[in-house]
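Thread amino acids onto this structure.
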């Protein structure tokens, strides 16, 4: 662990120890300059984003207008279908209500009383029998257009 005091052999190059630092050593003021550099970079990025937004605004406006036009066209085409679907649904709902009432009346007509007899088959006002309301395949809506 002792160093040799003998000079190196002449065939080996010697180290150049004339290099020195040109900047002063880092101190607390150096972090301030790093913060200033970071702030400068962030401002440059912010300016670039603002410029990009200004240039893109007309394109975004045009795309938004086209999307709104497409939504309006779709709504115009869907309105008659929705209206027809609503009419068909209302019609089917009415038929279902009529069938339910008649089924309930038929059930009540076959219910035995306390004496063991069945009740009279008097229909409920406005009710129809199951024979009167027969929802066949031809009455069911298949095409909504």
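Threaded sequence (145 positions):
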């Amino acid at each position: 662990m002792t160093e040799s005091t003998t000079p190196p052999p002449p065939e080996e190059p010697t180290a150049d120890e004339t290099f020195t630092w040109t900047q002063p050593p880092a101190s607390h003021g150096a972090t301030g300059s790093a913060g200033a550099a970071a702030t400068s970079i962030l401002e440059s990025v912010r300016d670039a984003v603002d410029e990009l937004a200004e240039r893109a605004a007309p394109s975004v406006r045009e795309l938004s207008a086209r999307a709104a036009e497409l939504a309006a066209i779709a709504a115009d085409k869907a309105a008659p279908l929705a209206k027809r679907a609503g009419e068909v649904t209302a019609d089917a709902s009415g038929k279902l209500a009529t069938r339910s009432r008649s089924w309930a009346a038929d059930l009540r007509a076959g219910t035995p009383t306390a004496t063991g007899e069945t009740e009279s088959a008097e229909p409920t006002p406005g009710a129809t029998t199951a024979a009167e309301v027969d929802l066949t395949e031809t009455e069911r809506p298949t095409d909504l257009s």
